[in-house]
Write a structure and sequence with these properties.
BTB/POZ_dom, BTB domain-containing protein, disordered N terminus, 9 helices, 3 strands, SKP1/BTB/POZ_sf
Length: 167
């Protein structure tokens, strides 16, 4: 049974405080730590006694959106043009729930090519997307198209070998 998580107000005081680009994000350390080994190490590792933790190399808006994607249902924050961006951030911060939201978005019909979807599934280990996309390569023309696309060079050596064997 699916339960909708309550919305999350990032301005309401919590037990953790992230500072991103000089702006404060109030977070629940236990909740973030349960979702992410990155945040678990951050909050309960070397920095465990700090009340404010500065986050670098991420924008305030991106961190705010990531946290919202963790707690709320995904909205139009994820689309064809930024799905790879969100996958990179989800991977960096080990936020599988965000990667799952992106994967679900990629499973829907979109303007992205099957080649790019295959590469994203391969690169970010999105098994459900991969198992949905691979059967689309039963036609020889799709395999030839993939081989001639810029996405082919970005596939893992294992995926390239699999696709070569398939052709």
């Amino acid at each position: 049974r699916f339960t909708v998580r309550p919305s999350y107000d990032l301005t309401e005081p919590r037990d953790g405080l992230l500072v991103v680009e000089g702006k404060k994000l109030h977070v629940n350390m236990q909740s973030l730590s349960a979702q992410s080994s990155y945040f678990n190490a951050l909050f309960f590792g070397e920095l465990k006694n700090q009340s404010m933790i500065e986050m670098k190399e991420v924008t305030f808006q991106d961190m705010k959106t990531l946290i919202h994607l963790m707690y709320d249902r995904p909205d139009d924050s994820i689309n064809d043009s930024n799905s790879e961006h969100w996958l990179k951030l989800a991977d960096r911060f080990d936020l599988k729930i965000v990667a799952d939201h992106v994967q679900n978005s990629l499973l829907a019909p979109s303007s992205l090519s099957i080649h790019k979807k295959l590469r994203l599934a391969d690169q970010f280990n999105l098994e459900k997307l991969k198992s949905t996309i691979l059967p689309l390569y039963n036609k020889q023309e799709n395999l030839v198209e993939l081989r001639n696309s810029e996405e082919f060079d970005k596939l893992s050596s294992e995926m390239k070998a699999y696709m070569s064997k398939k052709s």
